[in-house]
Amino acid sequence: MNYPIWQLDFFGGGLLIAVIAVFHVYISHFAVGGGLFLVLTEIKGYRENDPAILAYVRKHTKFFLLLTMVAGGLSGVGIWFTIALLNPAATSMLIHTFVFAWAIEWVFFLIEIIALFIYHYSFGRMERKKHLLIGWIYFGAAWLSLFIINGIIDFMLTPGSWIENGNFWSGFFNPTFWPALFFRTFLTLIIAGLFGFLTSTWIREQELRSTMVRYCARWLLIPFALLLGSAYWYKTALPAELQTLIFQRMPEMKPFISGFTLFSPVLVFGGLLLAIRMPGKISRPIAGTMLIIGLLYMGCFEFIREGGRRPYIIRDYMYSTSLLKKDVPQVQERGVLQLAKWVQHREITDDNRLEVGREIFNILCLSCHSVGGPLNEIKGLTANFSPDGLDAMISGMHIFHPYMPPFAGTAVERTALAHYIANGLNNKPTMDKENPALKEKFVDIPEFDPDKDEYVLLAWSRFGMQFLFDAQPNQFLTPPKNALHAQLIKRGETPEIVSEDVTLSYIIEEKFPSPRIDKSPDQTNRDHSNTLTGSLSPAEGGFVAEGISITPYSTTGDFDPYQVVTVEARDTDGTLLAATKVVVPVSTELGCRSCHGGDWRVDNRAGISSTTAENILEVHDRLSDTDLLAKASAGQSVQCQNCHSEPLIQAEGKPQHLTLSASLHGFHANFLRERGAESCNFCHPSSAHGATRSFRGIHQDIGLECTNCHGSLEDHALSLLKAEQVKGKKGAQRLMNNLQPQEVTTITEIEPRTPWVNQPDCLNCHVDFEAPDSESAFNTWTENLAGLFRNRTDESGQLFCSACHSSPHSLYPAKNPYGEELDNIQPLQYQQEPLPMGSNRNCAICHTVEMEDEMHHPNMLREFRNF
Amino acid sequence: MDAATLIPTPDTIPVSWGWFQALLLLTFLLHILVMNIMLGTAFIALVSHLKNNRTSNSLTREIAKKLPFAIAFAVNFGVAPLLFAQVLYGHFLYTSSVLMATFWLSIIGLLMIAYYAAYVYKYKHDQLPSGRIFLIGLTVSLLLIIGFFFSNNMTLMLHPESWSRYLEQPGGLLLNLADPTLLPRYLHFMLSAIAIGGLSIAIFSSYKHSRGQQDAQLGIESGCKWFAYSTMVNIAVGFWFYFSLPKGMLAHSTPQGIFFIILLIAGLGLSILAIIRALSCRVLAVTHLTLTAVVLMVFMRDLVRRAYLKPWFTPQDLEVVPVYAPFILFLLSFIAGLALIGWMLKLAFEANANEEAQP
Q: How far apart are CA A732 and CA B201, in angstroms?
């Protein structure tokens, strides 16, 4: 924000600092422990009066000087140069806060140089005692350098009470100062031993070589136990929250934690191995390998320490992006483009979107993500995301990925960034919902003769919006089941609901012959004799066919989410009493792939690919520590409902797990906040630009949105989660933490609800069946299953609401995107207009005469209001 | 674009800016002297090899022996002024560094190569008569490139009005080549290095001469010549540098302008005197005159920097949030450190003297 960003692609994401730091840290630790090694080995030489040992120390000193002073000293300066280029703001903060600590360290650096030169060049020329004293001074100065740098490095990880008091000493002697100092001190001794192996295995005289290699092994092995002890102390000194974060909630840390754990016994074993007498030809490669393992060991530790800081560079104070934690709300409100000093564009237009996205990427992402490089490569990490999906991901990335910062910018800036990454870098199409051309579908309206016909047959699908998760072979989300309802009315002045001595059957359109979804569309059985038919069984007040397995794929390979079903009623002799048609909707146009990758499976507009499904399982495994993908790959059944209960299909799940609705909505709501109805369309096939457009009834036509009845996604999720919270399920709170209620002020005002049971009630708005005063049905729920629109009847208790009004989401008069008549077949059949049955005083359809009593519900005897 | 909007907001400082200013000037003086010795002697060694006369072998052997020390101390003494410069001018310096990041970071790699080349040059000086020219040539070339990058950064930080170039080229590949002061400034510093390098050879030879090594006279003469001739050229380059500075930046009517003119005239006078003394090989006098002149030049350099930045910033603007204890601790460590270093050097010299006494 304050400084320009060095725009790196391949080398971005901190690669430069990672490389130079691991290199430097290894040598600089050697520079400390190696100093003690020199002095103590020199003493050993004197004590044993062994000139060969002294000659070895002298030679080792030259190696030590050339390595530590040139490569070590310069790479130390190199780290300083590098951090100042990669994160000038943090460097400036550390320099200004700790300037005199750095200055003191400089004094020690100077003493080190002079002491080491004198030690090296006066070896054998200076009185022994004095020479040793110079050696001790070198070691002392080197260790004090470590003392100072350790304070500053650990300040970055655990600034402790400095955050509140800003006190120099609080920051320097921070909570991990002492354990880290001990840890690093023991590490320096181990590294001294490792470098000792390198030089001692080259000693020509075998006896001396064995002696010295064993001596070096002691340098490695004795401090090791102390190192592990101090590592444990270091870990426990971390704030509890940070421990959880590093060791449990950052899957990215696992390889480094495992590496550190794995290399520990390897180093011990290597040390013991080298203690065995062996020829130089064998011991030298082992020593070299050990040195590399030591570097990896150190690298693992430093990665854990640096990684543990994420997303901060100075924990709880400054993000890796140089932004101060306290400034983020302001940047989110006013925008990064307005507040950053070094940007070319302050406004976003259609023409500059990609360039602006790059600028935002530079400011907010580049510090940790490379483009095409080895560190946190952004293209790979985001390969699954569409621009919209990535936009959603970025908006909630910090919630479940604790190493990510909250996005510091406005929603428009976030969109530009997502556009740059997903479209500019990954070539994903700019539009998720591509407005596909829909093939118009015509239907022959069945005939009805009001003078002759004795029956009126009304049929409806249980759900007006039905989707199916059809990934193969991982069909883990929704079972492919539709349900068809019907009521047969015998016409007359007092019509009767007929439920006995008749049989009702259905026939699905011919071009959907094989409804088994375990076949991909191109493998669908094309045997036309295999037409799907079935009967409706008598159920309370009507007939029902449960479990109709259909897919939206026709034999011609088309995607058709609105299959027309013919329903017939016959008497016991088989005589046709009445016939009608109805749409049974099913869609596989679920938006999972916007974030989980994969292509549409069918017709470039619908169908869940196995890539998408696998990614869903993979993400679940990563975030919830499961092994679903492995199970699915091994052919085991993976069903969400095995763990997550779902009242709709009476799946009980596991008691401590959230309901499927609560977990799905609760989790995704964190990424889809503040988007109104658009958030619903991310996943459900309800978008007005998609291939299904399943929200299509009168409510859609007059401009209402999903949120009018269900509330915003936040509210919707909160109501579900709150019910889980009340039941004492721990997972609910984690999902609720970042959700702000929209319709009401506080979460306490949100009424908890059980999915599929407590739903918005039509009468919330249509009080007494009148025109509504309110446009929100949110937060007052139906009490039980019987209260649901789909289960409710009129005031006579005879006729289901849906019989006259059709299914939820496709209420008459409905405009089906595939054909105007499709969703209005029965009104058109019986009353030649697409209105709810009996509207505009069409009582005679069933009653054969005009009626004067509003016996079905009040306010029904009038002209239809919205047509 | 208004350049002022690009200048980052600086951080607060723990003690008054004057302390940092004093420490900056003091440690920069140390750095520039050692850097000059390092680069100057290396350059002279290279030229001597190219001329390939017999004297050069003993001279270059001595330079070869000491060059790694000079690099070590030039780096160490460079750390402190860079630290204090970042405290006072960090928001300018970090910015210009990012603008030329690729070149700036390359300094570390180049220096490492130069340093190791200097060590190989030292250890193989006598074994590789042809290779050593390559080695010292490599060291000198790299040091000259590093100097050029430093000159670029030290001037780029003074030109916020040129920074908006970053918006078109954010890849860290900018330099300050359009600045008319860049070349004379760079040459001025490099020629100073040759002069001081020459002088350091003269001083060292003079020390040896005083201990009875008669052949050291050649070194005195050669060193003084290098000093005198390079300083002559440098006076001309100095004028070029002076006249390339923006007109009116250091107006003679202002106290800073007057101070600058006084320093300039004094520095010029001292340099001319030093040339005259150098031509007669009066090493001690040249040393005194030159050290004084270098001190004045360091002040002038600082005046120029502050004059450049005056429209944007003065160090007095920095907010002080007082924290004195670490400062006092630093001063104590510094004094104790110097005492310890003095004592260690004494031990080293004693050991050396003992060895020479017992051949």
A: 78
CA nearest neighbour of A47 among A128, A139, A126, A119: A128
Whole-complex ipTM: 0.97
Q: Which of A764, A814, A813, A811 is closest to A787 using CA atoms? A: A764
Q: Which amino acid is at A860?
A: M
Is the distance from CB of A519 to CB of A455 less than 8 angstroms? no
The rounded distance, in Å, linking the Cα atoms of A797 and A795 is 5
Q: Is the distance from CB of A800 to CB of A792 less than 8 angstroms?
A: yes
Q: At what angle do helices A280-308 and A254-274 cross, to 10 degrees?
A: 150
Closest CA to B86 of A237, A618, A80: A80
| Closest CA of chain B from A124, distance in Å | 10
**Is B1 part of the contact surface with chain A (CB cutoff 8 Å)?**
no
Give the span between the Cα atoms of A85 and A4, in whole angstroms.
Answer: 9
- Distance from the B353 Cα atom to the nearest Cα atom in chain A, whole angstroms: 10
pTM, full prediction: 0.92
Compute the nearest-CA separation of A731 from chain B (Å).
43
Beta-bridge partners for A482: A548
Distance CA B119, CA B68 (A): 6
Helix/strand/coil for A752: coil
3-class state of residue A199 by DSSP: helix
Calpha distance A279→A284 (Å, rounded)? 9
Q: Does B72 lie at the interface with A, CB-CB under 8 angstroms?
A: yes
The string of DSSP codes covering A671-687 is: TSTT-TTHHHHHHSTT-
The packing angle between helices A206-237 and A177-200, to 10°, is: 160
A40-A41-A42 Cα angle (round to 5): 90
Tell me which chain A residues have a C-beta less than 8 angstroms from the C-beta of B97. Answer: 81, 84-85, 88
- Read off the pLDDT of residues A47-94 as tens digits, 9 standing for 90 and up: 999 999 999 999 999 999 999 999 999 999 999 999 999 999 999 999
Distance separating alpha carbons of residues A526 and A407, to the nearest angstrom:
51
Distance of alpha carbon A151 from alpha carbon A169, whole angstroms: 10
Q: Which residues neighbour B58 within 8 Å (Cβ) at sequence distance 6 or greater?
A: B215
Q: How many CB atoms lie within 10 A of CB A364?
A: 28
| Partner-chain contact B98 A6, CB within 8 Å | yes
| Strand bridging mode A576-585 / A600-602 | unpaired
Compute the distance between CA of residue A790 and CA of residue A807 in angstroms, rounded to an integer.
Answer: 7
Q: Which residue of B has its CA nearest to A130?
A: B347
Which residues from chain A sit within 8 angstroms of residue B170, using beta carbons? 4-7, 362
Touching A: B residues 187-246, CB under 8 Å: none
DSSP conformation class of A419? I
Tens digits of residue pLDDT in A502-550:
999 999 887 765 444 443 333 333 333 456 788 999 988 899 998 888 8
Q: Considering only CB atoms, which chain B residues are within 8 Å of A126?
A: 347-348, 351
Q: How far apart are CA B197 and CA B59, in angstroms?
A: 12
